[in-house]
Design brief:
Number of helices: 4
Strand order of the largest sheet: 1-2-3-5-4
Strand content: 15-25%
Largest sheet: 5 strands, mixed
């Protein structure tokens, strides 16, 4: 079990219910420790496939962010994706694009913080997910 395998599998099945289970299994097994950096107010997805990144974003926004908001109130959160400088030319869509699409789908307000980082603000994160 390694990061490359999990990234590849989750890229294929992130929209299936089993994808969420496999992502959580990877979290518990510390598979993503080197590619997903999770902080209370920041999620760094530099080392993720877009499928793993989407699952990480959903998990972080529904499980971690509401706990932070409960104690800190309304505040800003950041998702770091990079801007695709190291993405192979054969990959058309990078993690930044799919994260932006997922945030829009989840109705999470965001704006550019810098070229490879999105700033998210919401009064209650848990009410913005579907």
């Amino acid at each position: 079990r390694n990061t490359i395998t999990y990234n590849a599998v989750l890229q294929s099945i992130h929209e299936l219910e089993i994808g969420n289970s496999i992502f959580r299994e990877g979290l518990l097994a510390h598979v993503f420790d080197e590619c997903i950096v999770i902080d209370d107010r920041q999620l760094d997805l530099h080392g993720c496939s877009s499928g793993a990144g989407i699952l990480a974003l959903r998990w972080w926004w529904t499980e971690i962010v509401p706990v932070v908001q409960e104690s800190a109130g309304s505040c800003s959160f950041y998702v770091i994706t990079g801007w695709g400088k190291h993405r192979p030319a054969r990959r058309q869509t990078g993690i930044l694009e799919v994260v932006r699409q997922e945030l829009d789908r989840m109705h999470v307000p965001w704006r550019w913080h810098n070229r490879g980082c999105l700033r998210l603000t919401a009064e209650q994160a848990s009410t913005t997910t579907n």
